[in-house]
């Protein structure tokens, strides 16, 4: 009877049975705790130590700013040091260049690599591997407005058959040759008409062993000179007339047989070879 009565009672039991948690800490139970009881549980037993450890401030929060960020400060100091070194090197180099190109009286010797500046317009004598579309069809020569251009360097060399050596001075009336450093061709003039003004054309032609000559008068840096072509008698000349297409912004360089204010040039930027016998 006792077994049968229990079976019938379970059949009539419509209320779901509640799970009873095993004995032990109530923190493992899934039952919802009353707020006041939950606070008691969190503040008792092993949870008390955990709670205090989490609320304790990190040790580095009490350190000074420079100790917390020492690595960033170190990187900043290193960056400033590198910048200061780069600025010092740049300014020193700029000072050396200014001293070399701005001092009067530096003699131009054979072997010097320089730029020729047109006195009136301040353009540099320039050439590049682009032929004229008329006249001789040889490599064109122009005036270039910018200073930092590698196609404006010329090597000063003596005439063919001369005994002059690198480092020898260039006296008044000496016959010289100007070789374009980039293309290895030589400054040249002839009777073809220049493209814009119709004067004598100036071009570059030949190679290392083939050139003609020009005459230069007394040559020192920043000294006003004229360069006269031996064969045609024309003076190296330029003006403010500019090309508009292939060499847009560059001005015409030509040759005229008269001495004019527009055919005065000066030795400007360059690498000047020390004069032989000078200290």
Q: Order of helices and strands, N to C?
A: HHHHHEEEEEEEEEEEE
Number of helices: 5
Radius of gyration: 45 Å
SS-derived structural category: alpha+beta
The strand line-up of the biggest sheet is: 9-8-5-4-1-12
If you average the pLDDT, what whole number results?
A: 74
Per DSSP, what share of the residues sits in E-state strands of 2 or more residues? Answer: 25-35%
The major sheet is characterized as: 6 strands, antiparallel
Could you estimate the helical fraction of the residues in percent?
10-25%
- Oligomer class: single chain
- Which stretches of 5+ consecutive residues score pLDDT under 50? 1-16, 24-33, 38-54, 83-103
C-alpha geometry: extended
C-alpha termini separation? 135 Å
Strand runs, count: 12
Task: Describe this protein's structure.
- This is MIR domain-containing protein.
- InterPro entries: MIR_dom_sf, MIR_motif.
- By secondary structure, this protein is α+β, with helices and mostly antiparallel strands.
- It has 5 helices and 12 strands.
- A 6-stranded antiparallel sheet has the order 9-8-5-4-1-12. Strands 2, 3, 6, 7, 10 and 11 form a 6-stranded antiparallel sheet that branches.
- A hairpin with a 7-residue loop joins strand 2 and strand 3.
- The chain is extended and about 90 Å long.
- The N terminus is likely disordered.
Tags for this entry?
single chain, 279 residues, alpha+beta, six-stranded antiparallel sheet, 23% helix
Quick summary:
With 279 residues, the chain is α+β, with helices and mostly antiparallel strands.
Task: Provide the fold topology.
Elements: H1 2-12, H2 35-42, H3 47-55, H4 65-68, H5 70-102, E1 113-118, E2 124-131, E3 139-144, E4 154-158, E5 174-180, E6 186-193, E7 200-205, E8 214-216, E9 227-229, E10 235-242, E11 251-256, E12 265-271
Antiparallel strand pairs: 1-4, 1-12, 2-3, 3-7, 3-11, 4-5, 5-8, 6-7, 7-11, 8-9, 10-11
